[in-house]
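ok new one. same drill as before - structure tokens go in, u give me an amino acid for every spot. 575 of them this time. try not to just spam alanines like last time pls lmao
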């Protein structure tokens, strides 16, 4: 290995702390088996040497070759650890090394080494099962060549023609049968993968179509709250908002699950102030906790961690939401504990707890625990999503529960960083920035268009609402566009066209009911903020304030942009 390999990388390679990867696991497993078998073969040869069952000249050859082979196997194992991934030259070298060494061992050892011949099948099938049919065929050819060499150079094997013929037939029949099993397994895997992708697409599309009206109802309800209602009417609005909160949480769980199934979730770690993140999650769950008679508290912290803020917030939100649902009239505490260079985020309650027979299944999708006949809202996706996201970003999840005493769920191994975290709050004084701001709103759903317009106008903005790309483009300070628009361009294309027409880098926000990563792939501007539906009004307001504060203070136009035709970003793929 070169001097450029850092100490950290070597330490992780030795300890095995690496993200799950099928190719890495297969080759690492094969390398580890090689090291173990080398030790076993060396001990077996030593026993033959001490008992006098191996001739002196053969024993000397073993003493010379064994350390060399052991060194090579250890180097291969280290190479796989340090540089994982598909490396065909390395695999072919390992295949040739295994069969040539086994042939040499059997040729020198004679009758005493005859039991080692069983490793021929082990190695042949092992290469096929780990690397596929092509390697199975290559290993089969190598095994036949080894047997042919033994029949030519070894007096013992030359004198055992029937045994040798049996081994040749076995080396052909077993790999052939293994290839049939591999083909069936591959076909079944492809069918399952296709079904899984179809399920994910269905969930994503169903979630998108249903989230649109939920999004509109949520915004209209928020506007209705401040319309001078009587106490009875306000209570009805509260009940509507509670129901919407439940439905919104279900849709987000479905979308999170479908997004993880797609394999397109890429963690983007950055410095995250843990205190504001925990505070925001607790604030979002205050009203559900109040309804359930729960005392929801959190311990303030000034720690800064390195993590993907979006994924970490989703995991913590699911844990707190679960505690609120399953610990009625109890106490729920959210806090963190520092352990060296990492911290553990803890959500603990003194609720009714979970029976031991349920605990092994809690991280399975759609698994729900029914307590005392209570009809708990949800679909059983929360902990499954937490577990999958934790594996994705390389942290752990631990759950301890005792029936009648409560439950403690911990996110472990979150790395602490000394880097400064970006600001997460906006001062109250800055909120006046929205007053008088002209907002161009483009949304093709009439209900969503109306509700969003009413909401933004309540914040003192002048809203120019359109169901499609306006022509001519009016002057504006900010563009808020839905990603899906009827016509030749989506929201990203509409924003680009507005900026071109005004000759200014106008602040903009994309709103979508699709998965953010899929939408991001379709946008030319990687810096465009994306807000998922259904959203809370506070989220939209905070993002508008953030965009306004980041914009150029000198006039509405901002920096001039080059006069060029923007590429039309057509709807498709992520629509």
């Amino acid at each position: 290995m070169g001097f450029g390999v850092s100490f950290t990388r070597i330490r992780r390679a030795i300890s095995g702390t690496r993200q799950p990867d099928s190719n890495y696991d297969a080759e690492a497993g094969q390398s580890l088996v090689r090291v173990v078998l080398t030790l076993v073969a060396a001990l077996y040869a030593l026993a033959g040497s001490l008992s006098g069952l191996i001739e002196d000249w053969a024993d000397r050859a073993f003493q010379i070759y064994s350390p060399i082979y052991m060194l090579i196997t250890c180097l291969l194992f280290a190479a796989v650890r340090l540089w994982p991934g598909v490396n065909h030259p390395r695999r072919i070298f390992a295949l040739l090394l295994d069969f040539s060494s086994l042939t040499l061992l059997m040729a020198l050892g004679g009758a005493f080494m005859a039991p080692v011949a069983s490793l021929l099948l082990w190695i042949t099938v092992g290469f096929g099962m780990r690397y596929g049919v092509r390697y199975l065929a290559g290993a089969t050819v190598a095994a036949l060549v080894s047997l042919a060499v033994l029949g030519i150079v070894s007096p013992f094997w030359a004198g055992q023609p029937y045994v040798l013929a049996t081994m040749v037939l076995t080396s052909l029949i077993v790999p052939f049968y293994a290839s049939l099993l591999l083909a069936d397994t591959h076909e079944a895997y492809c069918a399952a993968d296709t079904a899984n992708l179809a399920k994910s697409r269905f969930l994503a599309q169903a979630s998108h179509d249903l989230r649109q009206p939920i999004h509109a109802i949520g915004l209209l309800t928020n506007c209705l709250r401040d319309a001078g209602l009587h106490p009875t009417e306000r209570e009805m609005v509260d009940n509507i908002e509670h129901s919407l909160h439940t439905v919104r949480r279900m849709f987000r769980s479905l979308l999170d699950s479908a997004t993880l199934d797609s394999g397109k979730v890429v963690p983007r770690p950055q410095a995250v102030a843990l205190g504001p993140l925990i505070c925001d999650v607790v604030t979002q769950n205050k009203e559900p906790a109040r309804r359930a008679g729960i005392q929801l508290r959190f311990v303030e912290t000034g720690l800064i961690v390195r993590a993907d803020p979006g994924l970490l917030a989703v995991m913590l939100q699911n844990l707190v939401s679960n505690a609120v649902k399953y610990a009625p009239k109890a106490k729920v505490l959210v806090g963190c504990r520092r352990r060296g260079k990492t911290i553990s985020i803890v959500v603990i309650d003194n609720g009714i707890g979970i029976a031991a027979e349920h605990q092994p299944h809690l991280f399975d999708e759609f698994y729900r625990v029914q307590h005392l006949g209570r009809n708990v809202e949800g679909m059983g996706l929360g902990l499954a999503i937490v577990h999958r996201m934790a594996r994705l970003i390389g942290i752990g999840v631990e759950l301890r529960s005792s029936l009648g005493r409560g439950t403690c769920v911990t996110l472990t191994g979150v790395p602490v960083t000394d880097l400064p975290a970006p600001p997460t709050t906006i001062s109250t004084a800055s909120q006046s920035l929205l007053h008088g701001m002209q907002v161009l709103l483009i949304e093709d759903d009439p209900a969503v268009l109306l509700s969003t317009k009413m909401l933004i106008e309540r914040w003192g903005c002048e809203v120019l609402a359109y169901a499609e790309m306006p022509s001519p483009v009016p002057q504006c300070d900010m563009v808020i566009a839905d990603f899906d628009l009827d016509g030749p361009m989506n929201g990203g294309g509409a924003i680009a066209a507005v900026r071109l027409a005004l000759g200014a880098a106008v602040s903009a926000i994309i709103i979508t009911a699709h998965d953010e990563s899929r939408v991001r792939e379709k946008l030319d501007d990687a810096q465009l903020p994306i807000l998922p539906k259904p959203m809370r009004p506070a989220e939209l307001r905070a993002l508008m304030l953030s965009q306004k504060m980041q914009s150029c203070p000198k006039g509405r136009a901002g920096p001039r942009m080059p006069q060029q035709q923007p590429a039309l970003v057509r709807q498709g793929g992520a629509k």
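The longest strand covers residues 406-415. and btw The mean pLDDT is 79.
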